[in-house]
Amino acid sequence: MDLFDLSGRTAIVTGGNGGLGLAMARGLAKAGANIAIWARNAEKNAAAVEELRALGAGDVLALTCDLAEEAAIETAMAHTLGAFGRVDVCFANAGISGAGTAIPDITADGWDNTMRVNTRGAALVYKHVSRHMIARAKEGDAGGKLIATSSGQSIMGVNRSSDYAASKAALNGLTRAAAFELARYQITANALLFGYYETDITAKADPKFGEWMSRRIPLRRPGDHEGLEGLAVFLASPHSDYITGQCLPVDGGLSIS
After folding, report:
1. What is the mean pLDDT of residues 161-181?
2. Worst-scoring range by mean pLDDT, 45-49, 62-66, 132-136, 251-255?
3. Among 216, 214, 212, which Cα is nearest to 255's?
4. Strands lying side by side in the sheet with 144-151
């Protein structure tokens, strides 16, 4: 018996066409899940679909979706349900790095844009996904998984990152609130507070930031993308049904250093 078979289950992965989202989607594909990628870059979406379809027996759909626009989220949800009939798991992974400004240089537009994508976008995704999950629960098919990509910066301080840190701290609050509110429908909500992983976002950072991180992380290395595959499958599986409302650091010990 395969303890982590996700055949017949459908997972949404926002921002799943690269970075951490694609790494988690690989694990879901290998476990047999159907996957809906919601992301903005059509070319990267197409490449992700081709890669993921080769990994497992489930089907893969990619939809061009800007999480800053609720109409786009609503359309993507409708297309996902039209293709797969149900959604069991949602990885609210899409996000941006923030404006990168020092606190004295904060602008309203920069702050609002980071919040719009990282926090409001995830909340609106959960709005439409949870409506479907609640409707299923009322018909006798309870259960669902909400997993957010947060950041260690939500509980730690980093220079020139106040908007990003605040957006992810708010996401942690959303996670706890969703876990409490939706528990009656057997819907769980958890957040992963990722530390330093090499991604397109970190590639844009000052090289000194990566050097500083490598010295500060107790395990003395960035996170490995392959390790995210099993983590995603565990959180998407019934074996994590009793875990909810948690904000789990996945950071090589960075948050305790």
Report:
1. 97
2. 251-255
3. 216
4. 60-64, 34-39, 10-14, 89-92, 144-151, 187-194, 247-250
Alpha carbons 203 and 46: distance in angstroms, whole number: 23
The model's pTM = 0.95
Tell me, what's the pLDDT at 157? 85
Q: Which CATH number belongs to the domain containing residue 119 in this structure?
A: 3.40.50.720
The count of residues in the chain is 257
Residue 232 lies in a domain: yes
Q: Is the CB of residue 60 less than 8 Å from the CB of residue 37?
A: yes
**Phi and psi dihedrals of 37, rounded to 5?**
-90, 125
How many structural domains does the chain have?
Answer: 1
| Candidates 164, 196, 197, 242; catalytic one | 164
Active-site residue, 164 included = yes
The pLDDT score that the predictor gives to residue 199 is 82
SS3 189: strand
Residue 164 CB contacts under 8 Å (≥ 6 apart), including other chains: 97, 98, 114, 118, 151, 153
pLDDT digits (tens, 9 = 90+) for 40-80: 999 999 999 999 999 999 999 999 999 999 999 999 999 99
Half-sphere exposure (CA, 13 Å, Cβ side) for 85? Answer: 3
Cβ atoms < 10 Å from Cβ of 39:
25
Structural domain span for residue 20? 10-256
> Residue 56 belongs to what H/E stretch?
none
